[in-house]
Amino acid sequence: MAVDARLTERINLGKFGFLNVLPIYYPIESGVVASASRLVTGPPARLNKLMAEGRLDISPVSSIEAALHAERYVLVPDLSISSRGPVLSVLLMSRRPVHDLSGCSILVSAKSETSIALLELLTRLRWHLRDVKTFKGCVTASLNHGERPTAFLAIGDEALTWSRQEEYPYRLDLGQAWFEWTGLPFVFGLWTVRRDSLAAKPRGIFQTVDELMAAKTWGRGHMPIICREAERLSGFDQEALSDYYRHLCFDLGAAEQCGLRHFFRLLYQTNRLPSIPELEPLTRFAQVA
Question: Which fold has domain 90-182?
């Protein structure tokens, strides 16, 4: 009896534990798009680590992780977490105007190295601030315990939660700040495939990539359902969630790739990257050696 390749080549598939990927993963988790993949959920930093350790086969990772280890990964084509302007879920919240933050320390979420790197580029090259330091911590826990840093960087769902803090009247969307600076989209996350997984389980890899693309198409065409599910999970109202999803882009087209390359060039110029990587897209004839 024939054995389903999806069972013999079962894929460990990462999922960011944020609302931003719900349009991609709800179709899979609800069974609208059938999948035999094993889902592993976590923040970007954790999925970066699991991919690096070979415990995931396919996963979204922070853009900077893909850049630092381009030899390890190939990209799932035309799939990213991007914005062409405001992203609404990567916010610098401050007690002071941004140009008065020289010499200050900024609390940053440890969940995403890409957002931290973007903030550092903006403070240094765009706003020309001096002696700005970042320190990592849990933003929600710190604020709930009464800590009040001069400024903090909130990422993901906690950015949606803390975006209206009256104690922090200066609210800066990093996606918008990047777009005003460069005129380019910003790519926060990329779906990647481990090269050794592609070599060992090619049928399972391509099957899962096809499922992700089918899920993206379904999610894009059924946003009212996505918003209702997001409301159930988060408690945010559907109108706010609909606005949030309108600002997200899940493509990796020419404009997104241009923005990504520009980000990598700036990271190289500021010594955050040892070289400017060339990220290889997955193809049916991908080189896996």
Answer: D-Maltodextrin-Binding Protein; domain 2 (3.40.190)
